[in-house]
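Name: Nitrogenase iron-molybdenum cofactor biosynthesis protein NifN
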Amino acid sequence: MARILTKTKRAAINPLKVSQPLGAALAFLGIDGALPILHGSQGCTSFALVLMVRHFKQAVPLQTTAMDAITSVMGAADSLERAIVELAARTRPRLIGICTTALAETRDEDIAGDIVNIKSAHSQELKDSEVVLARTPDFAGAVEEGWSKAVTAIIEAITRHGTRARDPKKIVIFPGSNMTVADIEHLRETIESFGLTPMILPDASGGSDLTASGQWAPIARGGTTVEQVRDLGAASQCIAVGEQMRRPAEALQGLTGVPYVMFESLTGLNNADRFAWLLKSISRNDVPTTVRRGRLQLQEAMLGGHFLLAGKKIAIASEPDQLFQFAQFFISMGALLTAAVTTTSHSTVLQLLPADTVQVGDLADLEQLAADTDLLVTHSHGRQAAERLAVPLMRIGFPIFDRIGSQHKLNILYRGTRDMIYEVGNLVQADRDRQPPLNRSIPAVQVS
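Structure predicted for Nitrogenase iron-molybdenum cofactor biosynthesis protein NifN:
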């Protein structure tokens, strides 16, 4: 069991953590027709929007209640009402997701009560829009908590309560915030290959291909529909990916009776095997040929990758679920986890981490702990640390703004694990080839 070391510094140096409200906004963007609104100052929303646009390389529909000095002192109910009503009239969203920031939360306002009053006073204007509140102050938690709280709030507000007739072919998937567009698409294709129908909440893959259309969408396009969220209780099984999704799975089970199965990760041979056997037992069908071929290809990649990764020292900094995902992957390939840094100590998955200690901290802590490492694994803000340490950087998580295609990197199941082995192996090999040969002097240049 890993020992969790809490942070002791008063300020973050090269921060690792990204805030809760941004995580909640990302989750709301996985609902078709959704409009996330950050209940706070305009500057808070602008900062979050910049990170999201740089990461996704496309425009993101994110709005704000634009609290100012007066509303921060006197109360922000009027700002919240004006934002909800005006934006509903302008954009016609199917769902309005309210993500609270520290500025709104520190006043300890009855925001839930304000929303009830707003919906009652403007029932006609909001008749086609669901309004969902996620309490996500910046001063606590990180992306994972915000994502989890938003999904839980969506279920509690929209899903029909009570036990219903089950469709044996329908299963609910709760993906974690660390899953990419490619991960979700591959997850859907794999489930459908077993003859099952997945209902993925939230589905972040829906709007990833809309930029080329050249049209600005003021609300999220693609993803899970509100009608599908209402009908989650008709599924026969729920699969939650990541400890962060335990809370939504428990909420769904409590409201509808749908049982759930937890996967801390879908990366790696053992996790992919367990997932395939679960789908086989639910569908009562044989494992498809494409899945079997993917397993054989992963085994071949593991044989080749061990020669490059065995004994390599790895330092990882990420959110708890993603930290566990990649730590387990590297350990399975024979590498050594020499440094583990995360954003929050609340996740129980940290206790399962294959490491002696886990530091809750920032990228400066990672740099200090990774003085004798062979590879850094974190998001794009770790590039300066990797440069100073003269080691390669594997970019994961949020944000990745200095590379393109990050959302289309596959990291799960047989095929994704195979691709990760090749990516890491090539990073290590390229770094080794770049190093000057040992015990070989550079010949002097003779001038005639």
